[in-house]
Design a protein that fits this description.
The complex is a heterodimer of chains A (about 190) and B (about 120). Chain A is mainly alpha-helical and about 190 residues long. Chain A has six helices and no strands. Chain A starts with a helix and ends with a helix. In chain B, about 80% of the residues lie in helices and about 0% in strands. In chain B, helix 1 packs antiparallel against helix 4. Chain B contains five helices and no strands. Classes of the chains: A mainly alpha (about 190), B mainly alpha (about 120).
Chain lengths: ~190, ~120
C-alpha cells in the first residue's frame, strides 16, 4: 500500500516539474529575445529565434516537458480509474506531440510538420482536460474539478476570440496550471 | 441538521459578486451598440455569480459536487471578461477573489454533504 502511494507521488511530481521547467524556460527565452512581443508572436517563434539560447531553451523545454508529461500521463493511466485513466492516455499522446513540437520547429520543411504536431498537442490536451474534469466531478474531487473548469473555459474563450498569438499564450498558461493541479492531485492520491 | 455557516458565506459572496458585476456592467454601457459585447460579458459574469449564490441557498437546485462547477464558471467568466477588457483589473481581481471564496465554500465536505442530504428530503 505504501509503495503504491509513493509511486503515484512520483508521477504527480513529474507533472509539477514539467510545468515548472517549461514556465522558467519560457520566461528566460522571452527575456533573451527582445523582439518577441506578447500577443504578436507565438511561443513557437521562440523556437526559430535569432537568439540561439532562446531557440535552444524552447526546443529543450518542449522535449523535457514532453517527457515529464508523458511520465505523468502514464501515472494517471495506471493509478486512476475510468475517465481519469482515459485522460492519462490522452495526456501521453499530447506529451509525445509536445516532444515533436520541440524537435520539428517552424523552419523544418515548410512548417506543416510543426503546425500538425502543435495542433495534435492542443487537441489531445483539451480532450485529456475534459476527461479529467468529468472524472474528478464524478469522484467528487472538487478543487481539481474547479481548476479544470476554469482553465478549460478560459482556454476555449481565448481560442474562439483572440488572435492566434495571444490565444496560444493563454491556452499554454491554462495547460500548465491544469497539469500542475492534476500533478498535485496525483501526488496526494491516497493508497 | 442546521445549515452550515459556509452555505451562508457562499451565498453572500455570490450575491455580492453578482451585484458588483452588475454595477460594472452598467458602468461599461456607453450609450452605443459598440460596447454590447463588453456589456454582455459583464452580464454573463453577474449572472454566473448569482447562479453560484443560488446553489448555496436552502433546497439547492443542484447536487453538492455541481456547486463547485458553478462557482468555477463564475471565476472563469470573470477571467474571460478581464482578457477581453470588459472590466477593469481592480474589479476583476475583486471578483476573482470572491469567486475563489465561493469555490472554497462549495468544496467543503460539510457543505456538499448537507446539500446532498437536504435535496433528498
Amino acid at each position: 500500500m505504501n509503495s503504491r502511494k509513493i509511486g503515484s507521488a512520483g508521477f504527480g511530481i513529474a507533472a509539477l516539474l514539467g510545468a515548472f521547467i517549461f514556465s522558467v524556460a519560457w520566461i528566460i527565452a522571452v527575456c533573451g529575445d527582445a523582439s518577441w512581443v506578447l500577443g504578436e508572436n507565438t511561443i513557437s517563434d521562440l523556437g526559430v529565434s535569432d537568439v540561439q539560447i532562446s531557440a535552444d531553451l524552447f526546443k529543450y523545454a518542449c522535449i523535457i516537458t514532453g517527457v515529464l508529461f508523458a511520465i505523468f500521463g502514464i501515472g494517471k493511466a495506471i493509478f486512476e480509474k475510468k475517465a481519469n485513466c482515459a485522460s492519462g492516455i490522452f495526456t501521453i499522446i499530447a506529451a509525445l506531440a509536445l516532444i515533436a513540437v520541440g524537435v520539428y520547429n517552424k523552419d523544418f520543411g515548410n512548417g506543416n510538420a510543426h503546425l500538425f504536431v502543435a495542433y495534435i498537442f492542443f487537441l489531445f490536451t483539451a480532450i485529456a482536460a475534459i476527461l479529467s474534469g468529468y472524472g474528478d466531478y464524478h469522484e467528487k474531487k472538487t478543487i481539481p474539478t474547479a481548476i479544470t473548469v476554469v482553465a478549460f473555459v478560459v482556454g476555449l474563450f481565448a481560442y474562439a476570440t483572440c488572435s492566434l498569438a495571444l490565444a496560444e499564450v493563454v491556452i499554454v498558461v491554462c495547460i500548465l496550471i491544469w497539469a500542475a493541479a492534476q500533478g498535485v492531485k496525483l501526488a496526494m492520491e491516497k493508497a | 441538521m442546521a445549515m452550515p455557516k459556509k452555505m451562508v458565506a457562499g451565498s453572500a459572496v455570490g450575491l455580492f459578486g453578482g451585484i458588483i458585476a452588475l454595477a460594472v456592467m452598467a458602468a461599461t454601457w456607453d450609450g452605443t451598440l459598440d460596447c454590447i459585447v463588453k456589456v454582455g460579458l459583464d452580464m454573463l459574469v453577474s449572472v454566473s455569480f448569482f447562479a453560484a449564490a443560488g446553489t448555496f441557498m436552502k433546497y439547492s437546485p443542484v447536487q453538492g459536487s455541481t456547486m463547485v462547477v458553478l462557482s468555477a464558471l463564475a471565476v472563469a467568466f470573470t477571467l474571460v471578461a478581464l482578457i477581453y477588457g470588459a472590466m477593469s483589473i481592480g474589479f476583476g481581481l475583486v471578483l476573482i477573489v470572491l469567486g475563489i471564496v465561493a469555490i472554497l465554500c462549495a468544496a467543503c465536505p460539510t457543505v456538499t454533504s448537507w446539500v446532498d442530504a437536504n435535496r433528498r428530503v
